[in-house]
């Protein structure tokens, strides 16, 4: 603890040239402030992009058939690969690490020809044949009714779940959609549920214009037999879909009689891998934030060293008197180092406080303006503040050490002769 006399000496030394002390303290303040703000902005970008992925299971991949690039076992090159329903069971059996294997079928598109009608209204929408677990892989908010159930699958019911874009196109304002009928390619389906697509998803418009049909009903009504258009596959949390992907593709090549080295026959999109690349980018940005903030802080610490060197030179007589009265070198060093610590910690914590205020203002502005694409909830982990405090203490000691060593090298006799 500092005693009263020591505190008075420190304050008197720092107040000897107030403007110079202020400019030096501002360098430290600005370095910490920039560090906190940069890290919070990086966190906000990470949160925003992660939010764009929504609640979609990021440990997932999609897989679909393409054309073969190599002949195999008498089958020609260029053959179209078509998955079958039996492939789903094989994947589940051979890879218990998989949590969901959802076969899917698709018809039309919301930008294609008109394929859905209701009374005198028509629209072009994506019609997707799915299993109940797909709602756990793709986020959607059920606004009325329910999603597809296994009863619908087993009994091949002609029920559909429609997005809010479909509701807007085919129903009047305020009209209840659940229980009404729509026609898909001339076949009647009853609406059993409606959903709203998440606004933070980049594919929200397409999702809002999607109609979900039980997979078994889809294949029967639209004459798809036992074919599967594509699959959405999710691994259990303890396993990485990226590490399981080579085995999944290997099994599917065996199932569909594809050359083991044919990389083009089965298309796939690894959502976990894409998400990993994005998070890796933000790790780099976080490092850049630390690096830039550290450089600015280093420049502030150089300013602290300079002001203390000047202060030591201006107080040569004082140091000489103290040494002549019996002050030890460590007492002199301690005085200078404590002055450095007071200056750096005080100005640095002001930087942390102002950075926290800036973060609060950013979050308040986001609340007032509504969601912003790719940016949400900027914040800084408490450990960043702890690390910043550690940096300040270490920097204060280092910054005061050089002037302190110089002060102790002054001989009392020479110091007393200095005018």
Automatic annotation (TrEMBL):
Transmembrane spans: 21-41, 287-312, 341-362, 382-402
Bilayer topology: Multi-pass membrane protein
Pfam families reported for this sequence: FtsX, MacB_PCD
Domain ABC3 transporter permease C-terminal residues, every copy: 291-412
InterPro entries the UniProt entry points to: ABC3_permease_C, MacB_PCD, Macrolide_Exporter_MacB
Signal peptide: none
Keywords from the UniProt entry: Cell membrane, Membrane, Transmembrane, Transmembrane helix
Cell location: Cell membrane
Domain MacB-like periplasmic core: 21-248
Stated family: Belongs to the ABC-4 integral membrane protein family.
PANTHER family, alphabetized: ABC TRANSPORTER PERMEASE YTRF (PTHR30572:SF4), MEMBRANE COMPONENT OF TRANSPORTER-RELATED (PTHR30572)
Protein name: ABC transporter permease
């Amino acid at each position: 603890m500092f005693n009263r006399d020591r505190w008075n000496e420190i304050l008197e030394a720092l107040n000897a040239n107030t403007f110079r002390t202020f400019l030096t303290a501002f360098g430290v303040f600005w370095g910490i402030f920039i560090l906190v703000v940069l890290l919070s902005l990086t966190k906000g970008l990470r949160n925003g992009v992660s939010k764009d992925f929504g609640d979609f299971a990021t440990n997932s991949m999609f897989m679909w058939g393409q054309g073969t690039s190599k002949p195999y076992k008498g089958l020609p090159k260029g053959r179209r690969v078509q998955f079958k329903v039996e492939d789903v069971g094989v994947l589940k059996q051979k890879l218990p690490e998989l949590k969901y294997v959802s076969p899917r079928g698709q018809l039309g598109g919301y930008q294609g020809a008109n394929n859905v009608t209701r009374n005198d209204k028509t629209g072009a929408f994506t019609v997707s044949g799915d299993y109940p677990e797909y709602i756990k892989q793709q986020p959607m908010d059920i606004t009325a009714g329910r999603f597809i159930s296994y009863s619908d699958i087993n009994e091949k019911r002609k029920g559909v779940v429609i997005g809010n874009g479909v509701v807007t196109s085919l129903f009047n304002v305020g009209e209840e959609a659940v229980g009404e009928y729509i026609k898909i390619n001339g076949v009647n389906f009853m609406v059993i549920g409606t959903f709203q697509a998440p606004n933070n998803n980049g594919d929200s418009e397409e999702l809002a214009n999607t109609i979900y049909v039980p997979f078994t009903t889809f294949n029967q009504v639209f004459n798809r037999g036992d074919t599967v258009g594509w699959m959405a596959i999710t691994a259990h949390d303890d396993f990485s879909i990226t590490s399981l992907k080579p085995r999944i593709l290997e099994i599917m090549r065996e199932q569909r009689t594809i050359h083991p080295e044919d990389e083009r026959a089965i298309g796939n999109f690894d959502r976990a891998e894409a998400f990993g690349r994005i998070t890796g980018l933000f790790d780099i940005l976080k490092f850049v934030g630390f690096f830039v903030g550290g450089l600015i802080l280093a420049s502030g610490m150089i300013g602290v060293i300079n002001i203390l060197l000047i202060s030591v030179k201006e107080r040569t007589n004082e140091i000489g008197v103290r040494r002549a009265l019996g002050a030890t070198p460590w007492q002199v060093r301690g005085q200078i180092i404590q002055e450095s610590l007071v200056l750096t910690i005080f100005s640095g914590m002001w930087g942390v406080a102002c950075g926290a205020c800036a973060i609060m203002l950013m979050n308040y502005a986001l609340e007032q303006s509504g969601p912003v694409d790719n940016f949400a909830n900027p914040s800084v982990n408490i450990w960043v503040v702890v690390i910043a405090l550690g940096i300040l203490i270490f920097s204060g000691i280092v910054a005061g050490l050089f002037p302190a060593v110089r002060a102790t090298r002054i001989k009392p006799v020479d110091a007393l002769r200095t005018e």
